[in-house]
Amino acid sequence: MGCSLLHCLIALPLLASFTQLAAAKSRHVLDHRTHTYHKGEEVVLYANKIGPFHNPSETYQYYTLPFCLPKDGKQYVTEDLGEVLEGDRLVNTPYSLKFLEDVENQVLCSKKLDAKDLQKLRKAIAQDYYFQMFFDDDLPVWGFVGKIEPRKGPDGKQELHYYLFTHFHFDIAFNGNQVVELNVSTTAGADPKKTRDITSGDSADVEFSYSVSWRPTTVLFDDRMDRYTRFSFLPQHLEIHWFSIINSCVTVLLLTGFLTTILLRVLKNDFMKYTHDDEKGEQEDETGWKYLHGDVFR
Questions:
Q1: Cα–Cα distances in Å, from 11 out to 6, 18, 80, 134?
Q2: Which of 15, 106, 262, 273 is most buried (CB neighbours < 10 A)?
Q3: What is the mean pLDDT of residues 217-242?
Q4: From residue 75, how far is each of 24, 71, 78, 168 by CA, in Å?
């Protein structure tokens, strides 16, 4: 029992290490054979997750916010353990992107947002929520849900207004028959007027739209991931993750307690064994021929 428990204690840190390694290398990279397209071929754009910009460890599923849903319903991509622990939950989107075909002001959907939807969006905008998408499960792209701008109210005081981005422009770079770069913009490159003020009101009719432009580039397909190694969309400053620290401390204390318990049990058994042997030896010294020895020399 002690050996099996010890093996479990050794396996736990190893499992945690392998899990972290899998999470770090979760997103696979497609090769030349699976990443080539013909003109007009459909290219899938997956949505992944949303979360506050200043806390990258806090993420939620993309459709937690009232975005446009696909016509055929949500279809999630099967993820491995590392991707799940990273918070990745790839799901299809209603965007229709076709290789080398530009799109201008395509209506995605029209939604009637109720008070609950507007409250979610205002909270997301206040916390600088970003969204992450993947172009064909390979190239990541990030963008913001909305923005806050100060405006003067009727009384002359500054008031914060919540603006929802309703139009997204996808700028895609290709080299030959392969896609090597993807960018999304909400104001630059798109219509700056396509933002909706959702500061007040209990309902709103919102129309979401998008546009797509393709441009050639000299960047090679094998070098398409280099830009992500040079910079990151999410902040990289040092943060104190108290939950992780407390979790690590508790894990260390539990492992120390288990190991101490095992060692004390082993030492206790050894001590009782040696004590029993000593007592047995003393009893044997007082029996047998030594009694005769005492009678002879009395």
A1: 9, 10, 20, 34
A2: 262
A3: 72
A4: 25, 11, 10, 22
Q: Residue 175 class from Cβ within 10 Å (0-12 exposed, 13-18 middle, 19+ buried)?
A: middle
- The answer to whether the beta carbons of residues 94 and 68 sit under 8 Å apart is yes
State which amino acid sits at residue 182.
L
Enumerate residues 6+ apart whose C-beta is below 8 A from 161. 148, 149, 150, 151, 197, 199
**Exposure string (b/e) for 261-294, b if CB count within 10 Å is 16 or more?**
ebeeeeeeeeeeeeeeeeeeeeeeeeeeeeeeee
**Which token pair is 76?**
């999630």
Please tell me the predicted confidence (pLDDT) of residue 245: 81
Neighbour tally for 117: CB within 10 Å: 17
Cβ count within 10 A of residue 51: 21
**pLDDT value for 284:** 53
Radius of gyration in angstroms for the set of CA atoms belonging to the chain, rounded to a whole number:
32
C-alpha angle 36/38/40, rounded to 5°?
130
Q: pTM for the complete prediction?
A: 0.66
What tokens does 295 get? 């009678």
Under 8 Å between Cβ of 214 and 41: no
Place of tokens 């047995």: 280
> How many H helices and E strands in the chain?
6, 14
- Name the nearest CA neighbour of 134 among 215, 81, 176, 79: 79
DSSP tag of 105 = E
SS3 for 157-183 is CEEEEEEEECEEEEEEEEECCEEEEEE
Q: Tell me how far apart the alpha carbons of residues 286 and 143 are, in angstroms, rounded to a whole number.
A: 90
Mean pLDDT of 92-111: 92
Percent of all residues in the chain with a pLDDT value above 90, rounded to a whole number: 40
